[in-house]
Sequence to fold (370 residues):
Amino acid sequence: MRREQPVARVTLWDGSSCWMVTRHQDVRAVLGDPRFSADATRPGFPFLTAGGREIVANNPTFLRMDDPEHARLRRMLTADFMVKKVEAMRPEVQRIADELLDRMTDGRSAADLVAEFALPLPSLVICLLLGVPYEDHEFFQQRSGILLSLRSRPEDIRTAQQELHAYLVRLAGSKRERPDDAIVSRLVARGELDDDEIASMGRLLLVAGHETTANMTALSTLALLRNPGQMARLRNDPSLIKGAVEELLRYLTIVHNGLPRIATEDVTLGGVTIRAGEGVLCTLNSANRDDEVFPGGDALDVGRDARRHVAFGFGVHQCLGQPLARVELQIALETLLRRLPDLRLDVAFEEIRFRHDMGVYGVYALPVAW
Fold:
């Protein structure tokens, strides 16, 4: 499609249609153009599942809003995810990574990397940032799984959303009584949002803050194990780690289902006129393999300059937490490579279960040995 019909009409699950955009330049054009709205309440907005529609109908976050409301809410969190602030967290993230690996390797030579390292690392970090007690992680991880599953029924989505929302409303109330310096407490102290709005913001950060990095960590490890030459380059030259993380983000692109938008006026794109009120789906994984921008893009090359990737989106809605994700991935991969020189898969590749049914791609488990 990218070569022959880069802007193509496709049919969605409910029989509605939208435009699928597959080229890098076109994806960036749509995501950077205010004539394409992220407001999911607009008629004709393209939803990928009935559950996705349910999430927005119940309680939209600023991810599915346009400026100025999007900018107003996002600005309240910008300082928490600025590069300088996140870089200052490196020692703490490194401590967590080392402690998890200490526990994982204590007296053992095999483990599930997802359960014991890739998932708890970002979960612990986002709990610290938000002021959420980590002992509640099973509660919010289970609900996150329901919200992200492409197979969840609307009623299950509604229940999970309500339970998570109620939990975060209670948390906001507790921070009013016992404030700390974490994000939820500071949002309460600002006095600009009610508890429902704070809970919506907290839900977005909680779900996005652990599911994305956890799956990127596990998939990146698997990609390196499948490309031993690339893995050896990183071990021999740790200075490549930062660039390698960008390449892995490009190569893996864990949002496989695209970013939805809706045209607010007629726009010509790739020789096709998209009419006002028509939906558009930007396929990030296709854009990140575009040979026009990334020659030989189907191959992993940890020495590639992959900085123009769109794994975090593009434009005003691009991922707020990307500086944190980068730091977590850099530390996770460097620590794994340094401390486990004999790391290898502990099952046949064909036995690994991939998350084709989830909104964030990854693996359910990654059995490894060392």
Observations:
- The chain has a mean pLDDT of 94.
- The beta strands are 7-11, 17-21, 36-37, 110-112, 259-263, 267-269, 272-274, 279-282, 344-345, 367-369.
- The radius of gyration is 21 Å.
- The CA atoms of residues 28 and 314 lie 6 Å apart.
